From TrEMBL:
GO biological process terms on file: cellular response to oxidative stress; ketone metabolic process
Site residues (Lowers pKa of active site Tyr), renumbered to this chain: K80
Protein's recorded name: NADP-dependent oxidoreductase domain-containing protein
Protein keywords: NADP, Oxidoreductase
Amino acid sequence: MTFTLPSGATVPVPGFGTGTKWYKSGDPSIDRNVVDAIVSGLKVGYRHIDCAEVYGTEAETGLAIKESGIPRDQIFVTGKILPKIANPRAALEETLKLMQLDYLDLYLIHAPFFDEKSHGISIEKAWEILSELKGEGKIRDIGVSNFSVADLERLKDAKEKVAVNQIEFNPYLQNQTPGIVDYCQKKGIILEAYTPLGPLVPAAKGGPLDPVVNKLAAKYGRDAGQIILKWVIQRGIVPITTSAKVERQKTNLDLDAFTLTSEEVKEIDEAGSKKHFRSYWAHKYIP
Ligand SMILES: NC(=O)C1=CN([C@@H]2O[C@H](COP(=O)(O)OP(=O)(O)OC[C@H]3O[C@@H](n4cnc5c(N)ncnc54)[C@H](O)[C@@H]3O)[C@@H](O)[C@H]2O)C=CC1
Ligand SMILES: O=CCc1c[nH]c2ccccc12
């Protein structure tokens, strides 16, 4: 399955995240462990790095890209803006400087939880400025993250189309907000799934998904993570995972040699629908 953006660029699947485990916002020192983990990810074959201003890992990401020796144009780099949304041009310049890059492949508004009052800018105005930056060639595609249908509707008449909406998505959270997957897929907005392996964390284990995933893992000779990631891809969504462990980096990437049947995809849909599990932003959304 390929995922093509309005610029014509293809999104490599899965993406390699630099948030969650390594979040160190406000600390400018270089974390060598993070650089090494990203270099390892690139060396085992990831070509899509997901970063954000708020993670504090932009410098590590840039350094890892340099150290990997992989040409810049072979790596798809995503950045995200927030909280420095009041001045998107300055935020992007800082991000590019920290990453030692002259363009981003994808730049996302990290969340819709801001307005004129809280951050000095509206979603519509921020989008207009991101569109200008895209026109100047500093960003290849622009998108959003954590947006609901109502948030996306605010941009429906904008000149630049929303290319991507990155949301939390897993079998226990098939609708981050009501109707979001159908809406994005009908409008041609590429969905990316963060925390796709949420059902495997101890807080979510023991639910109705486990027997289905374990059965399919045995059938295909794969692990539970691979089954869930393949399900995400077959639902037409780009998964993004994070791991410092080279073995897990490899297994999470090794998804091409098997395909779930449409009945198996449905079986995961149905088992997953019996439980709700969300890792992020629970206070912002109705369950
Ligand atoms: N746009 C947004 O608001 C957000 C974006 N992100 C991005 O998405 C990336 C991925 O997010 P994660 O939460 O790290 O997703 P993930 O799905 O890789 O990890 C979720 C949990 O599953 C565990 N795990 C991973 N592989 C496993 C396996 N094979 N078996 C058992 N457990 C496993 C991890 O240790 C982690 O606790 C982040 O690094 C960041 O780049 C993450 C959170 C929010
Ligand atoms: O990407 C991870 C979620 C996250 C953690 N802190 C912030 C601040 C602003 C937007 C998203 C996030």
